[in-house]
Design goal:
This protein has about 120 residues and is mostly helical. It has a domain of about 40 residues. The chain has five helices and no strands. It is elongated and about 80 Å long. It starts with 8 loop residues before the first helix and ends in a 10-residue tail after the last helix.
Length: about 120
């Protein structure tokens, strides 16, 4: 009867290996997310929070902060190119005014926001 409760060495080995593999995956993903903080497009939970559903939907969507008061993310106005472009231009003006950037700093910022010239393509 005591043999029924006994766990084989092979099952213990596989459980340990499974735990190591899952831990390695969490470590890798965490380090990758940390590493992207210095990149032009760092990882955020914005997509997850913006697509939240259920009873806490409004709470999680308010954490994103991209949608102005009264604008529902479901109406897709935030995907309109003209609105987004105007919003970015206003943000750039506020940033330049707040930090009093020199011409060289403004050019660097424009290059960081828009990318190099060879990467730009007019949207018609």
């Amino acid at each position: 009867m005591s043999d029924l409760k006994r766990v084989s060495f092979l099952s213990i080995l596989f459980l340990v290996l499974l735990r190591l593999a899952i831990g390695w995956q969490f470590l890798y993903e965490g380090l990758w997310k940390y590493d992207t903080l210095d990149s032009p497009s760092p990882w955020t939970a914005k997509g997850y929070l913006a697509n939240a559903e259920g009873p806490l939907r409004d709470h999680f969507r308010s954490m994103v902060g991209d949608f102005p008061e009264g604008n529902d993310p479901d109406d897709l106005l935030w995907l309109d190119y003209e609105r987004v472009s105007q919003s970015w231009d206003e943000w750039v003006k506020r940033f330049i005014a707040h930090y009093d950037l020199s011409d060289e700093q403004q050019q660097t910022m424009q290059k960081m926001l828009n990318g190099p010239e060879q990467w730009t393509f007019p949207i018609k």
